Amino acid sequence: MSTPQNTTLIPETQRGPAERLLDLVLSGSAHLWHNRPGLDVNGTWVAAAYATPAQRTVGKPVKPGLFVPAAVKLYRQLLDIYQLNSVLMAHFASYALTQTDWRDLKVATCALMLVQSHAGLPVKGDGGEVAFHDDDWRAIGEAMVLHYERKSTRMLTPKAVLRVAELLEQPEIARLNREAGFGDPASRKPPLGRWKRVAARWLAAREANVSMLQGLVKAGYKETLKKLARKAGYKPRAQGFFEVLGWKQKQAESGHRTVGLNGLTLVKRERFDGLSEAEICEWIEHERLSYKEVVGRLPQDLGMTPAIMAALLPSLSDRDLRLMTPTLEELGLLAEPTVRTRWEKAIQTATDQRALNIAKNVRSDVLRQKLEEASDNAARKAVEEATAETDVRVMFLIDKSGSMEGAIENSKEALARILAGFPMEKLHIAAFDTTGTVLKPKASNRTAVQHMLAGLKASGGTAHAAGVLALHRSGVKVPEGAKLVVIVVGDEAGEAGDQFARVFRDCGYSVAALALLVSVAGARGSTVRTCSSQLRVPFSEVNVDQFSDPYQVPRVLKALMDAPTLPGASQSGWVERVMRTPLLKVA
């Protein structure tokens, strides 16, 4: 659970560096764990199955699991924040768990908090008496592990709890921790801090709540729970823990085990060999089995059939339904009215843009369009969530000058993923070189945005102000009380930033926040950053390449829209947002 605390402000001299570090971490998108073979292409993970010939030439094969280069990069960034200001890092860890959906960021911040050196130890005075106790930021890491919200994604899954230890055990991460003074430099064992203690407490809470433990097993976490228990050295209170996990026990060489050695009634998953399709369906409905519980138990000569999949549908989440669209299509289930209705409802609830990748694997054009609609819905939800209490108007300025030759196509793809998220009546778009051109999509969807951008070609000089002037001449006004967010797409190589800032004032536009979607073919300028400094408004930036990540678009949109809604927002928008987050507390 979390409790409000007085915000501790960081020194003004640290605000600039802290702001840049937080922006870098929160606008990043690299995944640390991958469940399929990949390639290490100059420190970037690429799926082996979809790598280009050039990437296959330079890439090094990577097995499924933790991608170490990305893990080291992210952990270094977190260490930089911690070493800059440990109070900021404590609030940031609480923010990462409760306010973001980036699962790997939660794992990395939890790992750092469990091993860093502020552990609540007594500080003694000159006479040897205890003067006070140091801050206990390791308790933040413990609270991250123990934090529980029913049916919420804002907590650590069993797999995430295990990954905290796996990350800390990586030799390069262990080296970084030792260099930071978090462990014995002479020890061969990696510093794990309080991980074993809190993992054992996490397991004990599940053992005490049998239905919760059974639910985790049913959700497919049986082997993860076994690994957690082994790594934490967990000793169950009763043999029921082993029975639920179907985990046969034997005496240790030292003979110290006393629980689970005799009389175990193991809960085993029996295969469905010899059963008919109808009997399997009846078993699924009677036992309320999930997809994960069934798929590995089906007879090889039968496999997954339409009837079996139909029986499993009640156990599938909306996310599962979206991911399994190709399977549902192949089995012909999307032609069934009840299944189709449920699937279309799932399309409306999308919170990420993975549907764009899934769309490549379906045959039907209608289904492909529906999946693209799911991508648009994810963007819309992100914008709606971030602007629920504030009237936000958005001005997109797209650089199509000659310096964008070779980068303009990347800009188009990023915009196609973004623009459909905004209500058309609150969205104003202009392209610019030395002159500005107002653009307007025919509809609020990905296809309409692609059609609108198709004719943009890179040529001419660069004047960001031309885009603003074009919108002003077309009659664009920002209602009183509304917040204006300006998002520039390009390399910001153009006129001086103070000139760009001046045009907003001359046109009567009060800018609440500025953002840059960096798309660079050659040299990069500083027009937008200087403009934000002149206007004294929050500034964020993100590289357009990151929008290939299906989870990145909603995350960035929320961040961009959050900035102007903060009371008294200034250029230190990230810091203020994070420092307002209550510190997590161990229940």
From TrEMBL:
Residues 394-491 form the VWFA domain. SUPFAM superfamilies: vWA-like. InterPro entries: VWF_A, vWFA_dom_sf. Gene3D superfamilies: von Willebrand factor, type A domain. It comes from the Bacteria. Pfam families: VWA_2. This is VWFA domain-containing protein.
